[in-house]
Amino acid sequence: MVVSKKRKHERKTQIITAAACVFSKNGFSNTVMADIALEAGIGKGTIYEYFKSKEDLFFAVFEWFSLKIEKTASMDVSKLSGTASERLMVLNDSLMSSWFETKDMFTLVMEFWSASSSSSLRERFKNAFHNLYKEYRYFVSSLLQYGIDHNEFRSDIKIESVAAALVGTWDAIFLQAWFDESFDPITTSKDFLEVLLKGLANHE
Amino acid sequence: MVVSKKRKHERKTQIITAAACVFSKNGFSNTVMADIALEAGIGKGTIYEYFKSKEDLFFAVFEWFSLKIEKTASMDVSKLSGTASERLMVLNDSLMSSWFETKDMFTLVMEFWSASSSSSLRERFKNAFHNLYKEYRYFVSSLLQYGIDHNEFRSDIKIESVAAALVGTWDAIFLQAWFDESFDPITTSKDFLEVLLKGLANHE
Amino acid sequence: MVVSKKRKHERKTQIITAAACVFSKNGFSNTVMADIALEAGIGKGTIYEYFKSKEDLFFAVFEWFSLKIEKTASMDVSKLSGTASERLMVLNDSLMSSWFETKDMFTLVMEFWSASSSSSLRERFKNAFHNLYKEYRYFVSSLLQYGIDHNEFRSDIKIESVAAALVGTWDAIFLQAWFDESFDPITTSKDFLEVLLKGLANHE
Amino acid sequence: MVVSKKRKHERKTQIITAAACVFSKNGFSNTVMADIALEAGIGKGTIYEYFKSKEDLFFAVFEWFSLKIEKTASMDVSKLSGTASERLMVLNDSLMSSWFETKDMFTLVMEFWSASSSSSLRERFKNAFHNLYKEYRYFVSSLLQYGIDHNEFRSDIKIESVAAALVGTWDAIFLQAWFDESFDPITTSKDFLEVLLKGLANHE
DNA sequence: CATGAATGAGGCTTCATTCAT
DNA sequence: GATGAATGAAGCCTCATTCAT
Predict the structure, then answer these.
(1) Does residue A19 approach strand F to less than 7 Å at its CB?
(2) By C-alpha distance, which of D150, D165, D167 is closest to C197?
(3) In this predicted model, what pLDDT tens digit does every residue of C75-103 receive, in sequence order?
(4) Nucleotides in chain E near protein beta carbons (<7 Å)
């Protein structure tokens, strides 16, 4: 029974992976369940043994994707040490490279955004994104606070705002990289962070 | 004849406006042509007198929207004066408030992003966005250069990178505002810009 | 008023000619009223001032076409003289060349056949064709009778059958010419008629 | 698996038969896919599991029909024996009666002709007909050659022309029978062939 | 468990026809 | 008379979902 459970979980992941691939290639609406089944190497009907509907599967892909990103990011972050600036730099590099690996999956993110604006999953997606961003902002906020506490950053900065904007910048840099092949997100983000850190620095 | 031309143009705009409304509410795929016709108060077939297909209409909405945003922004920007910092501040405020006005249309932007990742319009959208971002980045770059030229900003900043990131930040702030009702994009952007300007400042 | 009537008739012919052209190119169903109007150089709505419907126009084209064929054929036939065999030969040549001229309009004939098998005009077309064939058969029958009366043809031939078959052969030869560019209807029909005439000949 | 293949083939035939019925009744353009599904006793969508489009199905009907005619004819023809004249007579009877059986399907032939003149299937149909006629002409040519070789027919006849015309005559006789209920294709063709054979006969 | 044949609701699009100008 | 903008009925086709095997 435990084995069966495991089997089931594996099969589920197999479908999700296949779905992620097809969704990212064609978008949600242009994706056909048959294609997902084909990609997963299973029968069309089998998908419905594991997911109630196309939308359900899509949301499962979203959850799988968030987790994946988070895991990659947090893995590196655990190694954070040094000054707040150094930590931010490492975080920046970590995010950039981790997203870079899943670059071809960035279209998925856009699909998720789109799904949260229309689609009947709107609320589920909106909430999930809301929480995701909150988490990221909270994490960056902590780093900023750490900098203030250690007299590294000025104490008059608006932590929340800077955190929110910074988190957003990372997203947006990827967005532009998506639209422009020649755009280099790693350099851009590094250069930008340097300036920002100067602005944060405490010159008593 | 001139009258007829004008009529045609008016009718076209009428359809685009209606389409924008419905697309932003339901997304591209979930939008039904009949709904657009209903919203525009015309017959279904009439749309096809003005647009070759649903996708064509969607792209027309995109163009109309871009133009609209641009117009609103450029209007304020023309009044720019003062130091580079002041100008950036004004630009920030202008963008924030202009986008704020079309806040309920922000979902459209997400749809456009999504369309540029899947859909058969992929290339058209990608190109258009590419150019749009290029333009914005170029404009911000000019302001930064202006600051450097006037010894207001440090000369060692990477103009391109900062411009790109800043433009992105504005997008991203709106994205977060979309996911979080309580998120205040105006304050956030202002606070953030303040820090950034400190980072740019030249303290010889 | 008389002038007006004439105008009306001219306009009607203009439309019919244009319609014949478009129908023969695209077939009835694939023809769009707008194309006919374009070909005729008039407005779409104008057609309806002269013809009640698309089907009506189509039937008018049929009548115009029949008349045209008939006129061309009968013109030459009036010059018939000599033996019955000679007359049949002349008729054969006349038909072949007259149809040859309207070769690119042969597709129209196929459309007419098709229309008489389906379409709501079925009965009208069937009747018209019925009469057309009857007429042709009757004319050929007369020639055959003439040959018998002059002891040129055997008296035991079944006039009706031979006439019907011969009339059909002419049609069918054009049909094959339509399907096969390299098929030469003139030679074929001549060769064939020669054999047939030998079969008809009276060798007391 | 073999069973499944068989099932699929049966279902395909079932659809083709139903389609043939509806197409012959209403013509290609006036036929609605839903009617075919109804006639076949299946769902609308099922047709598309077996045929890519309406046009594809139509062509499949054509192929099915050609084969059917050919099969019926060739069955009788295999029994050919006796003089060339006798063989031609038998062939004539065989064709007449076999087509007679499918008389109510003759409208299909007209639709096929029409389809080869317009419609996007033009080329496919034209080619198919071209080959079909070629085959028939070739077969009749062989019979004529046989007659010449056995001194039964005159050696100066133009085999190709006579064969082409004769094949066409059979078609055309059916055409007239279609337009005229009182027209008897069997008698007509017999009477006509008798005359023709006299013309072919060798009276050294 | 897995499958894939069957389905029918639903969407995009076409186009003959009308009618106000 | 002539026009062409407007229309909505109707048709082809797609595809998520089901269910018998």
Answers:
(1) no
(2) D165
(3) 666 677 789 999 999 889 888 887 777 77
(4) 1-20
**Structurally, what CATH architecture does the domain formed by C1-51 represent?**
Orthogonal Bundle (1.10)
Predicted TM-score (pTM) of this structure: 0.90
Residue ranges of the domains in chain C?
1-51, 59-200
Q: Which residues of A touch B156 (CB under 8 A)?
A: none
CB contact under 8 A, C195 and D191: no
What distance in Å separates residue B62's CA from the closest CA in chain A?
A: 15
Would you give the DSSP letter of residue A105?
A: G
Torsion region of A109: left, alpha or beta (phi above 0 gives left; psi -120 to 50 gives alpha) = alpha
Question: Class of A56-200 per CATH?
Answer: mainly alpha
Average pLDDT, chain C: 89
Please report where in the chains the tokens 């960056």 appear, as a residue: A140
Indicate which of B104, B109, B114, B158 best probes the interface with A, i.e. most A CBs within 10 Å of its own CB: B114
* Integer Rg of chain D from CA: 20
Using alpha carbons, select from B173, B143, B171 the residue that is nearest to residue B159. B143
How crowded is residue D151: how many other Cβ atoms within 10 Å of its Cβ?
10
User: Which residues from the 52-71 window of protein chain A have CB within 7 angstroms of nucleic acid chain F?
Assistant: 53-55
pLDDT at D122 over 90: no
Strand partners, A153: A201
% of chain C with per-residue pLDDT over 70: 95
**In this predicted structure, what is the pLDDT of residue B103?**
78
Q: Which of B27, B134, B188 sits opposite A164 (nearest CB)?
A: B188
Residues with Cβ within 8 Å of C91's Cβ and at least 6 positions away in sequence, in order, are: C73, C76, C77, C80, C140, C143
Q: Which of A55, A88, A113 to mutate to test the interface with B (most CBs of B within 10 A)?
A: A113
Q: HSE of A15 in the Cβ direction (CA atoms, 13 Å)? A: 26
Between the alpha carbon of residue B50 and those of residues A91, B14, B54, B192, C114, the distances in Å are: 51, 11, 11, 45, 35
- pLDDT band (50, 70, 90) for residue C180: confident
Nearest CA in chain A to B155: A195
A148 CA vs E14 C1’ separation (Å): 67
C-beta of residue C41 within 8 angstroms of C-beta of residue C17: no
D152 within 8 A of D199, measured Cβ to Cβ: no
> CA of A77: how far to CAs of A141, A153, A186, B91, in Å?
14, 20, 17, 35
Work out if B49's Cβ lies within 7 angstroms of strand F: yes
Residue of A nearest to B105 (CA): A117
Q: Measure D180 CA to nearest chain C CA, in Å.
A: 6
Q: Inter-axis angle of helices B159-179 and A106-117, to 10 degrees?
A: 40
Which chains would you list as touching B if contact means 3+ CB atom pairs under 8 Å?
A: A
Q: How far is the CA of A48 from the C1' of F18 (A)?
A: 10
Interatomic CA distance for residues C168 and A35, integer angstroms: 55
Model pLDDT for residues C182-200, shown as the tens digit of each residue: 889 999 999 999 999 999 9
CATH class of the domain defined by D54-200? mainly alpha
Q: Per CATH, the architecture of C59-200 is what?
A: Orthogonal Bundle (1.10)
In angstroms, the CA A67 to CA A96 distance is 16
The set of chains that have 3 or more CB pairs under 8 A with D is C
C1' (E11) to CA (B32) span, angstroms: 7
State how far the alpha carbon of D133 is from the alpha carbons of D102, D129, D141, in Å.
19, 6, 12
Q: For C139, which DSSP code?
A: H
> CA–CA separation, B91 vs B88, rounded Å?
5
Which positions in chain A touch B157 (Cβ < 8 Å)?
191, 195
